Amino acid sequence: WTVTLVTPQVSDSTCYVTQILMTDSLDGWMTCEAPRNVNAPPYNPGLYQTVDGGASWIPVNPLENFSDIYVIGSTIILSSRDVDKFGTGYVSSDGGANFFPAIPKSNGLDFVDNLNGVATGYRAQVWYHSTDGGLTWLGLTHVDSIETWSVYGVKGTPFFFTAGEGNDKYPITP
User: 3-state SS string over 111-136?
Assistant: First the structure.
């Protein structure tokens, strides 16, 4: 292992890395969030790509804050918990050449196979599921008030697990 400082090219010096996903030893993706004025859209890319094992990161549009990334073949799925006004997840079916809005305000992403996936809500947000490899997303009836960071699919099964933050929904009574 070699420790490498990740330095996304942003217009100011603040960018919080939220996920790094390497698809092989050279190629990978990084999502990040940058602070911004609540009434203005993000001004830094929230997605970066590496083709040299993480030695450098190239900004990829659109300008959004992203919280998670999942890749299935040439499909790239991005979630955004930017719940103020501008957050949305995006999908690219052509390896990142073009992105289109697809998942409203979501956080964690995972799939149990190449077709079936779940995107968690952030705070009091609807969760979403996909049955076509992430190209389209439908809302689930479940709304969870607990901040949920990640979801974990048990590969080859229909099961997903997640861990909420804190115990504000299910308080422990002595």
Answer: ECCCCCEEECCCCCEEEEEECCCCCC
Cα(83)–Cα(100) distance, integer angstroms: 18
Which of 8-12, 95-99, 129-133, 162-166 has the weakest average pLDDT? 8-12
Find all residues with CB under 8 Å of 158, minimum gap 6, and list them.
112, 116
| pLDDT at site 107 | 81
Taking residue 15's Cβ as centre, other Cβ atoms within 10 Å add up to 22
Q: What is the pTM of this model?
A: 0.78
Concatenate the DSSP letters of all residues of 57-73 into one string: -EEES------EEEEET
Q: What is the mean pLDDT of residues 121-147?
A: 79
| Distances, alpha carbon 59 to alpha carbons 32, 34, 64, 118, 123, in Å | 11, 13, 11, 26, 28
CB contact set of 36 (below 8 Å; sequence gap of 6+): 42, 43, 65
- Please say if the pLDDT value at position 108 is more than 80: yes
CA pair distance 28, 60, nearest whole angstrom = 12
Considering the chain, what is the average pLDDT of its residues?
Answer: 78
**What distance in Å separates the CA atoms of residue 24 and residue 21, rounded to the nearest whole number?**
9
Check residue 83 and report its DSSP letter: T
